[in-house]
From TrEMBL, chains A, B:
It comes from Phytoactinopolyspora mesophila. This is MarR family transcriptional regulator. It comes from the Bacteria. GO terms for molecular function: DNA-binding transcription factor activity. Transmembrane segments: none annotated. Residues 6-138 form the HTH marR-type domain. InterPro entries: HTH_MarR-typ, MarR/SlyA-like, WH-like_DNA-bd_sf, WH_DNA-bd_sf. GO terms for biological process: response to stress. Coiled coil: none annotated.
Amino acid sequence: MSEERRPDLAAMLFPLGRVLIAIEEPILSASDLSMWAYAVLSGLGEEPVRTQAALAAAIGADKSRVIPVLDDLQERGLISRRPDPADRRVRLVALTPEGRSVRSRVQAEIQRAEEELLERLSPDDRRAFLRTLHTLYESVRVAEPAQAMPRGS
Amino acid sequence: MSEERRPDLAAMLFPLGRVLIAIEEPILSASDLSMWAYAVLSGLGEEPVRTQAALAAAIGADKSRVIPVLDDLQERGLISRRPDPADRRVRLVALTPEGRSVRSRVQAEIQRAEEELLERLSPDDRRAFLRTLHTLYESVRVAEPAQAMPRGS
DNA sequence: TATTGTTATACTCTATAACTATA
DNA sequence: TATAGTTATAGAGTATAACAATA
């Protein structure tokens, strides 16, 4: 029972990641959003986050890295950020209605563009791939508390 | 027939990529290899590459970025690099026997470590996932001539 | 003149470590 | 004293562009 020869997982994932970035980039810049800004909007999309540090951790960023991003999004009225009355050290961050609308519009565009990539698969394969990818994603999300992206080296 | 709600592809792939880097890192540094050095060894593993630029493109790096890596690997006797007699502008780069052995040992270790991640899947899912990932990988490899990794932003 | 490899440089991204304000 | 957020800074990683050698 010999193992199938295959490229490393990372060797297959990274080129795919590059293509996905290339797909997202024009969509994001059409709405004047950086990758991190979109990550913040996505991170806030599900449920409101209590602290900025928690938000940063959830999207795999350093807490200091998200601050200019939050400044910008707040200035543009896409998020609200106000001190928690109960503990004035923490900032309650949330999407504004407009932020929510931008987020869902952009996400829809991105996912539509991603479909072009997935269309190369049969419907069955496509479904199975997304399901398994989601499983792995959830499994690493609980295993590894989100961390900042290590750089190249 | 409503679309299933799902996170963006990139949002699922990137955390997975981070975990894979974390898995590879200790294995690579045990052999004193950087990520790019391993990418070079991998790139040379299949068939010898004729030019350094082609090698760089194959691993998604800038041609100037691989030079210090090649210097180091050559100094350590893991690769050979000699001018092509037929066109002395180009350097013929190849794995030495020792380089080949290091590469296959390290790759075996990495893939063994990756299996721990894949073990969270059923054998069927695991097989299907690897097969589909490979399909996508091949499809983007021909579509997008390998390019340097765009940075965050 | 065009191409391969190389070097030097400027730029971007990033984490770290101080600092503030609250508790 | 400890924690959330902020700011400033130094370091790493990168692409760009100029350069040398060969064609």
